[in-house]
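C-alpha cells as discussed.
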C-alpha cells in the first residue's frame, strides 16, 4: 500500500488535482489504472500522501513545488459575451481561461459557469474544496442577474416563477423578481432576478417556460460578492486575504494565515530541506538550529555547544 501515515497527509487525488493533473474525479482513473506511484509503489484509490513523498505519474516525477499546498487565491472575472467556460473547445472558440492571470503551481477552477451568450461576474479559485462547497445546493449561494425578456410580463406570470415552474430536470424558481426602471424598449422588458440554484441555463429556461425568450442576461452577484463597478469586461480582480477568509468562513472552511506569515514558514521549511541536502552530500551529522523570529536557519556540527 502506498499511503502515508502522516497527520499532514491528504488523499492522493486531491494532491494530483492541486498539482494540475485535472479535477479529483478526472485523476481517479490515473490511479485506478496503475499510472501513479508513491515512493516507488503503485498507488491505489484511497491512498494518502504528503508533498514530501516521491510521487510519479506515468513514470515522470512530479516536482515537489507542484505538490505543496498553495495559499487560497480567488479572482473576480467580468465575463464578456462570446466566450465559453471550458478549458478547451473542439470548435476552437475563445475560452475565459485565455484571459486569466497565470497561476503558479495550481489551476483556476470556475465556481459555476455562464453560457456563451451570458456576461457578468464569475468567481475562480485554486482551492477545489472551496469551489465544490460554493456550488453545492446545501449552501444556497444566491445568484443575482439582470435580464431582458421579450413580451408583456403579467403579475400572474411573476407569481408563477416565484412559486416554481416545472422544467425537464425538476422544479425551478426565483427567490426574488424586481421590475427595473427603463427607457421604452418596445416589447423588451428588464428585470432583476435572484435564485439559489445553479442548474444549466436555469434563468433562461424559467423565462422561456412562460413564453418570454431572454435576449440579454448579465450576472451581477454570486454569494457575497457583487461585480465591481470599475471591473472592465475580460478583466480580473484578486480578492484580498481578508476577503478570501470571509469566503472560506461562508462555507465552513478553515481560515488561512496571512501571506507574510506563510512566506516566513516557507523560508523555515526551505532551510530544513537545504540542511538535509547538505547532510546527505557531505555525509556528516549536523544539527539544524532555526531562529523562528526571522525565519533564518543555521547549521552547526554535532558535538559540544
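Sequence:
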Amino acid at each position: 500500500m502506498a499511503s502515508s501515515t502522516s497527520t499532514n497527509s491528504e488523499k492522493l487525488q486531491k494532491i494530483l488535482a492541486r498539482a494540475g493533473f485535472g479535477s479529483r474525479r478526472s485523476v481517479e482513473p490515473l490511479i485506478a489504472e496503475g499510472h501513479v506511484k508513491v515512493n516507488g509503489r503503485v498507488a491505489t484509490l484511497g491512498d494518502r500522501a504528503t508533498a514530501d513523498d516521491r510521487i510519479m505519474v506515468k513514470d515522470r516525477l512530479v516536482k515537489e513545488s507542484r505538490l505543496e499546498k498553495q495559499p487560497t487565491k480567488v479572482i473576480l472575472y467580468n465575463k464578456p459575451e462570446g466566450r465559453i467556460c471550458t478549458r478547451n473547445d473542439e470548435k476552437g472558440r475563445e475560452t475565459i481561461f485565455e484571459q486569466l492571470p497565470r497561476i503558479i503551481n495550481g489551476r483556476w477552477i470556475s465556481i459555476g459557469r455562464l453560457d456563451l451568450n451570458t456576461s457578468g461576474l464569475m468567481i475562480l479559485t485554486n482551492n477545489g474544496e472551496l469551489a465544490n462547497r460554493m456550488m453545492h445546493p446545501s449552501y444556497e449561494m444566491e445568484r443575482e442577474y439582470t435580464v431582458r425578456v421579450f413580451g408583456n410580463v403579467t403579475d400572474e406570470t411573476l407569481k408563477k416563477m416565484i412559486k416554481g415552474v416545472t422544467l425537464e430536470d425538476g422544479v425551478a424558481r426565483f427567490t426574488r423578481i424586481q421590475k427595473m426602471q427603463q427607457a421604452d424598449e418596445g416589447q423588451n422588458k428588464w428585470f432583476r432576478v435572484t435564485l439559489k440554484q445553479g442548474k444549466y441555463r436555469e434563468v433562461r429556461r424559467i423565462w422561456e417556460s412562460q413564453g418570454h425568450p431572454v435576449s440579454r442576461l448579465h450576472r451581477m452577484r454570486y454569494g457575497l460578492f457583487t461585480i465591481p463597478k470599475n471591473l472592465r469586461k475580460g478583466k480580473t480582480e484578486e480578492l484580498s486575504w481578508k476577503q478570501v477568509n470571509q469566503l472560506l468562513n461562508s462555507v465552513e472552511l478553515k481560515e488561512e494565515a496571512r501571506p507574510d506569515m506563510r512566506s516566513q514558514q516557507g523560508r523555515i521549511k526551505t532551510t530544513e530541506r537545504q540542511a538535509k541536502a547538505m547532510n546527505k552530500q557531505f555525509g556528516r551529522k549536523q544539527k539544524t538550529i532555526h531562529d523562528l523570529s526571522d525565519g533564518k536557519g543555521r547549521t552547526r556540527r554535532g558535538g559540544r555547544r
